[in-house]
Amino acid sequence: MNAVKRIERALDAAVSMAEMPGCPPKLAAAMRYSVFPGGARIRPRLCLAVAGACGEDQPKLADAVAASIELLHCASLVHDDLPCFDDAETRRGRPSVHRAFGEPLAVLAGDSLIVLAFQVLVQNAAPSPSRLVPLVKTIGGSVGIPWGIVAGQAWECEDHADLAEYQREKTGALFAAATIAGAAAAGAEAEPWRLLGERLGEAYQVADDIRDVIENAEDLGKPVGRDLALGRPNAAAQFGLDGAVQRLRRLAGEAVEAIPDCPGARELRAVILSETQRLMPKKLAQHAA
Fold first, then answer.
1. pLDDT for 252-270, tens place per residue?
2. Which of 203, 193, 200, 202 is nearest to 259 (CA)?
3. Rounded to 5 degrees, what are φ and ψ at 33?
4. Number of structural domains the chain divides into
5. Beta strands 94-95 and 90-91: pairing type?
6. What is the longest distance spanned by two Cα atoms in the chain?
7. Which CATH number is 140's domain given?
8. What is the extent of the structural domain holding 156?
9. Quick one: which H or E segment has residue 250?
10. pTM confidence score
Protein backbone atom coordinates (compact mmCIF):
# COMPACT_ATOMS: atom_id res chain seq x y z
CA MET A 1 0.00 0.00 0.00
CA ASN A 2 1.45 3.39 -0.96
CA ALA A 3 1.86 6.27 1.46
CA VAL A 4 -1.23 8.21 0.39
CA LYS A 5 -3.51 5.19 0.82
CA ARG A 6 -1.97 4.45 4.22
CA ILE A 7 -2.56 8.02 5.34
CA GLU A 8 -6.15 8.19 4.10
CA ARG A 9 -6.97 4.86 5.71
CA ALA A 10 -5.50 5.93 9.05
CA LEU A 11 -7.30 9.29 8.94
CA ASP A 12 -10.62 7.67 8.08
CA ALA A 13 -10.27 5.23 10.98
CA ALA A 14 -9.47 8.12 13.32
CA VAL A 15 -12.37 10.35 12.25
CA SER A 16 -14.73 7.38 12.40
CA MET A 17 -14.25 7.42 16.18
CA ALA A 18 -16.28 10.64 16.22
CA GLU A 19 -19.10 8.95 14.34
CA MET A 20 -19.80 6.33 16.97
CA PRO A 21 -23.16 6.40 18.81
CA GLY A 22 -23.22 9.08 21.48
CA CYS A 23 -21.15 11.69 19.67
CA PRO A 24 -23.11 14.77 18.51
CA PRO A 25 -23.63 14.16 14.78
CA LYS A 26 -23.03 17.78 13.72
CA LEU A 27 -19.67 17.77 15.50
CA ALA A 28 -18.75 14.49 13.81
CA ALA A 29 -19.77 15.91 10.44
CA ALA A 30 -17.71 19.07 11.01
CA MET A 31 -14.67 16.99 11.93
CA ARG A 32 -14.92 14.86 8.80
CA TYR A 33 -15.45 17.99 6.70
CA SER A 34 -12.28 19.43 8.24
CA VAL A 35 -10.16 16.44 7.23
CA PHE A 36 -11.66 15.23 3.94
CA PRO A 37 -10.96 15.75 1.16
CA GLY A 38 -7.44 16.67 2.13
CA GLY A 39 -4.77 18.76 0.54
CA ALA A 40 -1.35 17.49 -0.45
CA ARG A 41 -0.89 15.64 2.88
CA ILE A 42 2.73 16.74 2.69
CA ARG A 43 3.41 16.45 6.44
CA PRO A 44 2.19 12.87 6.89
CA ARG A 45 3.84 11.82 3.62
CA LEU A 46 7.09 13.29 4.89
CA CYS A 47 6.67 11.41 8.16
CA LEU A 48 6.20 8.07 6.41
CA ALA A 49 9.07 8.77 4.02
CA VAL A 50 11.45 9.33 6.96
CA ALA A 51 10.13 6.28 8.81
CA GLY A 52 10.70 4.18 5.70
CA ALA A 53 14.20 5.58 5.19
CA CYS A 54 15.04 4.68 8.79
CA GLY A 55 13.96 1.05 8.37
CA GLU A 56 10.34 1.19 9.50
CA ASP A 57 9.49 -1.86 11.63
CA GLN A 58 6.12 -0.82 13.08
CA PRO A 59 4.00 0.37 10.13
CA LYS A 60 0.83 0.65 12.21
CA LEU A 61 2.58 3.02 14.61
CA ALA A 62 4.08 5.02 11.73
CA ASP A 63 0.62 5.36 10.19
CA ALA A 64 -0.77 6.58 13.51
CA VAL A 65 2.02 9.14 13.88
CA ALA A 66 1.43 10.41 10.34
CA ALA A 67 -2.33 10.64 10.94
CA SER A 68 -1.78 12.42 14.25
CA ILE A 69 0.34 15.09 12.58
CA GLU A 70 -2.21 15.61 9.79
CA LEU A 71 -5.09 15.87 12.28
CA LEU A 72 -3.19 18.61 14.10
CA HIS A 73 -2.54 20.39 10.81
CA CYS A 74 -6.24 20.22 9.89
CA ALA A 75 -7.17 21.56 13.33
CA SER A 76 -4.82 24.49 12.83
CA LEU A 77 -6.48 25.32 9.50
CA VAL A 78 -9.94 25.28 11.07
CA HIS A 79 -8.84 27.68 13.79
CA ASP A 80 -6.76 29.83 11.42
CA ASP A 81 -9.84 30.44 9.24
CA LEU A 82 -12.02 31.63 12.15
CA PRO A 83 -13.34 35.21 12.15
CA CYS A 84 -11.03 36.11 15.05
CA PHE A 85 -7.98 35.26 12.91
CA ASP A 86 -8.11 35.24 9.09
CA ASP A 87 -11.91 35.26 8.74
CA ALA A 88 -11.48 33.14 5.62
CA GLU A 89 -14.58 32.27 3.64
CA THR A 90 -13.03 29.35 1.77
CA ARG A 91 -10.52 26.57 2.28
CA ARG A 92 -9.50 24.01 -0.33
CA GLY A 93 -11.99 25.48 -2.78
CA ARG A 94 -15.11 25.22 -0.61
CA PRO A 95 -16.63 27.03 2.39
CA SER A 96 -14.39 27.04 5.45
CA VAL A 97 -15.62 25.01 8.42
CA HIS A 98 -17.11 27.96 10.31
CA ARG A 99 -18.93 29.04 7.14
CA ALA A 100 -20.34 25.55 6.61
CA PHE A 101 -21.15 24.62 10.22
CA GLY A 102 -21.08 27.84 12.22
CA GLU A 103 -18.38 29.27 14.44
CA PRO A 104 -19.17 27.27 17.64
CA LEU A 105 -18.91 23.91 15.85
CA ALA A 106 -15.76 25.03 14.04
CA VAL A 107 -14.07 25.83 17.35
CA LEU A 108 -15.18 22.48 18.80
CA ALA A 109 -14.18 20.55 15.67
CA GLY A 110 -10.68 22.04 15.80
CA ASP A 111 -10.39 21.28 19.51
CA SER A 112 -11.64 17.72 18.96
CA LEU A 113 -9.12 17.07 16.19
CA ILE A 114 -6.29 18.12 18.51
CA VAL A 115 -7.40 15.68 21.19
CA LEU A 116 -8.10 12.97 18.61
CA ALA A 117 -4.52 13.24 17.34
CA PHE A 118 -3.19 12.09 20.71
CA GLN A 119 -5.90 9.47 21.15
CA VAL A 120 -4.84 7.88 17.86
CA LEU A 121 -1.20 7.99 18.86
CA VAL A 122 -1.73 6.32 22.23
CA GLN A 123 -4.07 3.65 20.89
CA ASN A 124 -1.54 2.46 18.34
CA ALA A 125 1.62 2.53 20.45
CA ALA A 126 0.96 -0.68 22.43
CA PRO A 127 3.50 -2.84 20.51
CA SER A 128 6.26 -0.27 21.15
CA PRO A 129 5.42 1.54 24.40
CA SER A 130 8.97 2.83 24.82
CA ARG A 131 8.51 4.95 21.71
CA LEU A 132 5.34 6.63 22.97
CA VAL A 133 6.91 9.16 25.36
CA PRO A 134 9.33 10.70 22.83
CA LEU A 135 6.57 10.74 20.23
CA VAL A 136 4.12 12.54 22.51
CA LYS A 137 6.85 14.96 23.59
CA THR A 138 7.80 15.73 20.00
CA ILE A 139 4.30 16.09 18.61
CA GLY A 140 2.98 17.92 21.65
CA GLY A 141 5.85 20.38 21.49
CA SER A 142 5.14 21.05 17.84
CA VAL A 143 1.63 22.34 18.56
CA GLY A 144 1.96 23.97 21.98
CA ILE A 145 4.27 26.40 23.67
CA PRO A 146 6.87 27.78 23.70
CA TRP A 147 7.73 27.04 20.03
CA GLY A 148 4.76 25.19 18.50
CA ILE A 149 2.07 26.27 16.07
CA VAL A 150 -0.07 27.79 18.83
CA ALA A 151 2.84 30.03 19.77
CA GLY A 152 3.33 30.83 16.10
CA GLN A 153 -0.31 31.85 15.76
CA ALA A 154 -0.02 33.95 18.91
CA TRP A 155 2.72 36.07 17.31
CA GLU A 156 -0.05 37.52 15.16
CA CYS A 157 -1.43 39.09 18.36
CA GLU A 158 1.85 40.85 19.17
CA ASP A 159 2.88 44.33 18.06
CA HIS A 160 5.94 42.95 16.27
CA ALA A 161 6.96 39.49 15.08
CA ASP A 162 10.29 38.34 13.70
CA LEU A 163 9.62 36.71 10.33
CA ALA A 164 11.97 33.74 10.82
CA GLU A 165 10.70 33.02 14.34
CA TYR A 166 7.07 33.40 13.31
CA GLN A 167 7.45 31.02 10.37
CA ARG A 168 9.59 28.55 12.29
CA GLU A 169 6.84 28.17 14.88
CA LYS A 170 3.66 28.55 12.84
CA THR A 171 4.76 26.28 9.98
CA GLY A 172 8.19 24.79 10.60
CA ALA A 173 7.31 23.22 13.95
CA LEU A 174 4.91 20.68 12.48
CA PHE A 175 7.28 19.87 9.61
CA ALA A 176 10.05 19.24 12.14
CA ALA A 177 7.66 17.03 14.10
CA ALA A 178 6.98 15.05 10.93
CA THR A 179 10.66 14.25 10.35
CA ILE A 180 11.59 13.73 14.01
CA ALA A 181 8.52 11.62 14.79
CA GLY A 182 8.95 9.62 11.59
CA ALA A 183 12.42 8.58 12.76
CA ALA A 184 11.19 7.95 16.31
CA ALA A 185 8.33 5.79 15.04
CA ALA A 186 10.94 3.59 13.34
CA GLY A 187 13.03 3.36 16.50
CA ALA A 188 15.85 5.48 15.05
CA GLU A 189 17.71 8.37 16.65
CA ALA A 190 15.29 11.21 16.11
CA GLU A 191 16.91 14.56 16.89
CA PRO A 192 19.24 14.62 13.83
CA TRP A 193 16.10 14.84 11.67
CA ARG A 194 15.01 18.22 13.09
CA LEU A 195 16.95 20.39 10.63
CA LEU A 196 15.42 18.70 7.59
CA GLY A 197 11.92 19.40 8.89
CA GLU A 198 12.71 22.97 9.85
CA ARG A 199 14.18 23.80 6.45
CA LEU A 200 11.28 22.18 4.59
CA GLY A 201 8.77 23.96 6.78
CA GLU A 202 10.35 27.34 6.20
CA ALA A 203 10.58 26.67 2.46
CA TYR A 204 6.92 25.70 2.39
CA GLN A 205 5.95 28.91 4.20
CA VAL A 206 8.04 31.11 1.91
CA ALA A 207 6.35 29.50 -1.09
CA ASP A 208 2.97 30.09 0.56
CA ASP A 209 3.87 33.73 1.19
CA ILE A 210 4.71 34.16 -2.49
CA ARG A 211 1.44 32.54 -3.55
CA ASP A 212 -0.40 34.94 -1.26
CA VAL A 213 1.07 37.75 -3.36
CA ILE A 214 1.03 36.43 -6.94
CA GLU A 215 -1.80 33.88 -7.10
CA ASN A 216 -5.57 34.30 -7.12
CA ALA A 217 -8.17 32.85 -4.77
CA GLU A 218 -9.73 30.66 -7.45
CA ASP A 219 -6.48 28.83 -8.16
CA LEU A 220 -5.49 28.45 -4.50
CA GLY A 221 -8.92 27.57 -3.15
CA LYS A 222 -8.54 30.11 -0.32
CA PRO A 223 -8.40 33.90 0.07
CA VAL A 224 -5.22 35.70 -1.02
CA GLY A 225 -3.65 38.95 0.09
CA ARG A 226 -4.52 38.27 3.74
CA ASP A 227 -0.99 38.86 5.05
CA LEU A 228 -0.90 42.36 3.62
CA ALA A 229 -4.47 43.10 4.69
CA LEU A 230 -3.84 41.95 8.26
CA GLY A 231 -0.31 43.32 8.56
CA ARG A 232 1.34 39.94 9.08
CA PRO A 233 4.94 38.92 8.35
CA ASN A 234 5.40 37.77 4.76
CA ALA A 235 8.65 36.79 3.04
CA ALA A 236 7.67 38.30 -0.31
CA ALA A 237 6.75 41.58 1.34
CA GLN A 238 9.93 41.69 3.42
CA PHE A 239 12.47 40.56 0.82
CA GLY A 240 10.68 41.37 -2.42
CA LEU A 241 9.60 38.71 -4.89
CA ASP A 242 13.12 38.06 -6.21
CA GLY A 243 14.49 37.88 -2.68
CA ALA A 244 11.77 35.45 -1.64
CA VAL A 245 12.50 33.25 -4.66
CA GLN A 246 16.18 33.16 -3.74
CA ARG A 247 15.30 32.37 -0.13
CA LEU A 248 13.06 29.51 -1.25
CA ARG A 249 15.76 28.01 -3.45
CA ARG A 250 18.34 28.28 -0.66
CA LEU A 251 16.06 26.61 1.88
CA ALA A 252 15.22 23.82 -0.56
CA GLY A 253 18.91 23.10 -1.10
CA GLU A 254 19.61 23.16 2.63
CA ALA A 255 16.76 20.72 3.22
CA VAL A 256 18.25 18.17 0.83
CA GLU A 257 21.68 18.57 2.42
CA ALA A 258 20.19 18.10 5.91
CA ILE A 259 19.14 14.48 5.34
CA PRO A 260 21.03 12.40 7.95
CA ASP A 261 22.73 9.11 7.14
CA CYS A 262 20.16 6.34 7.06
CA PRO A 263 19.49 3.08 5.16
CA GLY A 264 17.14 4.76 2.69
CA ALA A 265 18.97 8.06 2.26
CA ARG A 266 19.16 7.82 -1.53
CA GLU A 267 15.45 7.19 -1.97
CA LEU A 268 14.55 9.87 0.56
CA ARG A 269 16.75 12.39 -1.21
CA ALA A 270 14.72 11.82 -4.39
CA VAL A 271 11.49 12.37 -2.44
CA ILE A 272 12.73 15.61 -0.88
CA LEU A 273 13.98 16.90 -4.22
CA SER A 274 10.58 16.19 -5.74
CA GLU A 275 8.76 17.93 -2.89
CA THR A 276 10.94 21.04 -3.04
CA GLN A 277 10.46 21.28 -6.80
CA ARG A 278 6.70 20.95 -6.33
CA LEU A 279 6.73 23.96 -4.02
CA MET A 280 7.70 26.20 -6.92
CA PRO A 281 4.41 27.34 -8.52
CA LYS A 282 4.31 27.90 -12.27
CA LYS A 283 3.93 31.65 -11.95
CA LEU A 284 6.93 31.75 -9.63
CA ALA A 285 9.04 29.64 -12.00
CA GLN A 286 8.16 31.93 -14.88
CA HIS A 287 9.06 35.00 -12.82
CA ALA A 288 12.37 33.46 -11.70
CA ALA A 289 13.22 32.60 -15.30
1. 999 999 999 999 999 999 9
2. 193
3. -60, -35
4. 1
5. antiparallel
6. 57
7. 1.10.600.10
8. 3-288
9. helix 235-257
10. 0.93
